[in-house]
Amino acid sequence: MPFIAEDARRPGHTHVLLITTGSVASIKAPLIVKELLSYSNVLVQVAASKSSLEFYKKEDVERAGSRVWTDDDEWTGTFKIGDPILHIELRRWADIVLVAPCSANTLSKIAHGLCDNLITSLMRALSPSTPTYLFPAMNTLMYEHPLTAEHLRVVRDVVGYNVVGPIGKHLACGDIGVGAMTEWKDIVKIVVDRFQLAPKESAP
Ligand SMILES: Cc1cc2nc3c(=O)[nH]c(=O)nc-3n(C[C@H](O)[C@H](O)[C@H](O)COP(=O)(O)O)c2cc1C
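== Flavoprotein domain-containing protein ==
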């Protein structure tokens, strides 16, 4: 079934679009989805880069109650004029976009306006009124590379995205330093606070 924003949006709900990229921190995606869905009236869709799926299983996100969209869903080989276009439908659907984690590669692509896969096409087509948060996660030297500072400046000051983190800790690559994704619970908290979400009533 094609994804059509108008049909998939539910009145009174918060529609969270989580984008995952090829950083080890993508292993947190199922946890982020599960936690978001523990709040009332929240729907989550996930759009994944090819390399991010090296770090979590689509099935784990689906078990938590969300769907993972990939380049293969965008390019099905059956497109006809008038068919919905996935990256446009997903951006129409979203009330908030979280790029968590945001790899150095995707950060660079966004800063340069590249749109050569589902996630970057979606970002390029986003309305400026959709709140968008980037959570960079990369090796310390990637983070300290002068190009990273320039890419972050562009996404903050030119594009208007919120950049949160990275934080310092023992990184998956063995280095200790700044470059880790903001704690996944703090990412969820940003959405909870912004939309004043209430936990689902627990069953009696
Ligand atoms: C095991 C492994 C871990 C990686 N971790 C990171 C990372 O934490 N941050 C990052 O920016 N790139 C990391 N990379 C490199 C990215 O996966 C690579 O640049 C990829 O092209 C990113 O593609 P994407 O931005 O489309 O997801 C890692 C690569 C490997 C093989």
